[in-house]
Structure formats: C-alpha cells, structure tokens
C-alpha cells in the first residue's frame, strides 16, 4: 500500500495504466484510500487537463458502453481520457516532516543574484507569488538554489516546470548535484518510471496535467516560452497542481507585458553573471533571401558570414524561420562544409548534435527556434535569417541573441539580424537589449 | 479549426468550389497531407507496384483461395507519416482521425458499386478499443455498410506470417443475407490472408463478385 501511496499522492492518474496490479488498486479503493472519478465530467470537461472546448472534447459512439461517450483530444498523448475511463487520486494529503536536506552547491552569487535570491526568499516566507525577471545569462537557476533548499528543508513539496524536454534535461542534473540526497523525479514524455515519493519534481509543463493539489510551490521556468503564452490549458495545469494558496514563482528573461503588470513581487537582474553587457544585434540586409534559397543559392552576405566563422574557428548557430527553409538550406551549406548540421523540433538526434557543437566536433548548426533557449555554447556566434519574419517575436529574438557571449571566457559574440526589411519586433528586441545593458551597468 | 495531426492553424486555399458548394471540410493541413504517399495502381488485386498481377497474388491463385478476390485497391503506402497517423488513430484511440481519409476511401468503395462490408473486429477487442476503425471511417465518409461476418477470438497481430497464412475459421457468417456484389473494406492489407478468408466464406455463401478496398498496403 505504501508504494501505491508514494506514487499516487498528489497525482491524478488513469486507473488502467498504473504501475501496480489492478487487484491492488481495487483493494485500495475498497479500503477508502483512493477516490475514483469519471475522466470527462458532467459539464464535458476533461478532469485531467481541464480542457472544455467542443473542438477538443469529442463525442463518439462507444462500443464499450453502447452509447455516446466523450473523449479529450487535448491530452490524448498521455493516454486517452474518456467519459468511460476512471481517474484515480489518493484521498489523504501527505504531511512531510521538516529536516535539513543536504545542499552541496558551493558556488557564489553575484550581488544582484543575491539580492534577487533574498527577495524571492522573502516572498516565499510570506507565501506570495514572485517573478524573477533576469536577462539571458544572469544565472537564474543558481539564485533559486538557496530558497529551494530552505523550502525543501521546511518539508515543502516542489515542482520546477519547464516548457520543453530539452530544458528539463538540462536542469535536472544541476538540481540533482545541488540536492544529492533529496528524492527527485524527472518527468517528461518518454521518461523512465522512478519509484518512491519525490519531494522535488522537475517536469515539462505538460506533465502537470497529471498532478492535482500536489505542490506547496511551483517554479515555472522560461515562463514566457511557447507553449505557455498560447496555451491556457497549461496555465490551468499549473494552478491545478498547486495546493490551496500555494505560490508560483515565474522565471523569465522575456516576460510578457501582462506578466509584468500582474506580478506584484518582482526581482530584476539586467546584468549577466560575468558582468559584461549583452551583445547588441547588428542589422544586415539580405534582400530576397527566400528567392535565393528557392533557386538553390545561399545569399552572398550570408555565405561570407558563415565562411568567416569557419575561418576563425568560431562555432555558430544560424536560426531560420521555417523547417522548410532549413531543409532547403541544409544541402547548400553542406557544400561549404559537410560537417554543418541541421536541427529542428522533429529531429530525434537534436541533443546529440548540440553536444557535438559544444565539443567542437561540428562547426555550426542550422536551426529552428527550438534552440532559442536553454542552450549554452562557449564563443557561439549567432545569425538569424529572416529576423523580420512574423514568427520571430521580440522575445524570441532576445532569446536567440542571448545565446551569444554567455561564458566569461568569451563574453562577446556576434548577433546578426539578417533581414529583408526591418520589423517592429527587431527594433523592440534591440532596444530592450540596449536598455538592459544601460540598466545593468549602473 | 486546427490541423488534426500537427495542431497548426488550417490555412485553406480558397477555391471556386468552396464558394458555390461550401462542401469541403479539410481536417489536415497541406504540410501534413503532403507527407502521405499515395499508391499508384499496380497489381490489380493488392496495388503492389509493378505490371499485371504481383508475385504474391499470383501465388494465392495457385491455392484454395483462387478467385476469392476479383479485384482490389489499397490507397496509401505504409510510410512513417502513415504509421504515426495509424498509431494515433488506432492505439491512442483518436476517433476523429477517421475523418482524415474518409472521403477518399468512400470514393474508392463507391466506385465498385458493390455493398460495403467491413472486416469486423472480435467483440472483446472492440470493447477494449471502444470503436471499430473501419466502421468509423465509413461512417465519417457517409457510406452505408452492412456487417456479414463475425470474427472469432484469435488476434491477428500477435501471430507471425506463417501462422497467419495457415489461419482457418477466422470468420463465420452472422446470418444477414449475402448480396451478389460485395466490396470488403479494411484498414490495412498485409499478407492478404484476412481478406481472402473473408472473401472465401462470402463466395461460398453465394456472393458473385468480391472486391476489396484497404486504406494501407503494408
């Protein structure tokens, strides 16, 4: 029974897909430990992901029930929830007794990091939500460590949610190293099952659908990133996973205007941990680049830029607005240097290719915005092809520019906006970066 | 309206037909539909590429199943995109995906001018899956169909090729009267055993021609 409790506390799970035998689950139900509810409620809402639009809650002729049932398309990849599937929850919450968790991080925070860390600590002491607004490379994760340690030691259950598996996989080992004795689970689509009760959970935001009143604190990393800003369901998932009145900490380098307006408690860090200013993007015209790629030619200025990187032996990331354009460009760039690789969201070897770039085994990557955040490569030079295209909002441009100059050994780096006309978003991004630098150097 | 497969916004090209008939309902975007690969009519029975009747079907004609299937058509290649589609439809049980190929499949079925008869699922499996994928596609395409067969308890997917070909007694008649011209409908043609077992019983029960349409040639 203990194993079932450890697994199920704070979760909402498909009855037919637990890691336990059906008889054991049934016994726990009969003994009153587990509550059972219908997957789709009377009001036609998915009880797991809280989706309720008629485009996603679909009626069908159910052969099992021999009547019309409904299923949820929104969270279907986590196993289909329908009106005739049962979701189970553990009834009693688990009280954790406080004890001092081991904390083996011995880095040092800069003054600005320390200040933000203290402000966050104060917010958590008062159970208030908080926004950490810090530029790319400010050292956001590190400043979370001391308040996290305190909260864990007080017996709080904590989740750190990030928008993408890539970011989760990057965070997880750093947290494990800082809190070596804390039971931590790393959850994402395709993750291996980990036993026991985890006081610390690192997960993609989607995984929060599977939690309910579980956490005393949720930290939403990259809070502005796709898909949060577009997906209200994910915002609801964060709220659902929290215990009553528990606070949320948002962490972002590019918070939306709404977020800045609504977050009462904020800490701002407009300076990188190494103290150098952010590289300011340079505009470079690249007229009719689409036509060029359509006729299998790399525009001259772009070719020159890449050749210079190869000559100087500097790794580069070249961002493209669409996967199609990457596919067009890939063979052309391989003619310049066959080691150049292309990366996009549907590429399963993405992690491996980024590692190769980091180790210097390949000179550069052509990429979609999938690598706009969570990636640190020493001395990387950044080019954005079609920076004026509508897919590149100011936040995305700032994140991509934020890949350059992150290491203290190479605090400078080129960021080029290759464009076919200057967009408002390009100007917004550049002005904001200049503003951060101005504020950060005060 | 978003694409059923990639969730991207459906960017529909306006056409004169839309203006007059308003009858088109796209369910997947152009990018996604471009990933599926249509079969160009090859073998007259199973659509395998090449002229005339393919080797496998020629071999079938030397067995007791000679002449059980008069002609047939498979519509799509079982490529990666189709594998993903099939997984989401059949195993993730995303019932709406029946709409994606419904129009095309029903068009092929109607061309035969015969009575559509879906290959049935066994009842246990059907309750587990909660829907019959072939029936759902036909319904989504607005086609009439009639069940003439019932399937016994064996599950095809769990057997190897040799075992599958030797399978006997997979189907029995369900008692409905058997029309003269029949088109069997299935989601996937793999070895052709299932369809031939079904066709044989129907021919023995008085059907004069038995054709088939399958969505995928695996």
Automatic annotation (TrEMBL), chain A:
PROSITE patterns given in the database record: HELICASE_ATP_BIND_1 (PS51192), HELICASE_CTER (PS51194)
Domain Helicase ATP-binding, first and last residues per copy: 121-273
GO biological process, one term: double-strand break repair
Keywords: ATP-binding, DNA-binding, Helicase, Hydrolase, Nucleotide-binding
SUPFAM superfamilies: P-loop containing nucleoside triphosphate hydrolases
MF GO annotations: 3'-5' DNA helicase activity; ATP binding; DNA binding
Domain Helicase C-terminal residue range list: 301-442
Annotated protein name in UniProt: DNA/RNA helicase
The organism of origin for this protein: Planococcus halotolerans
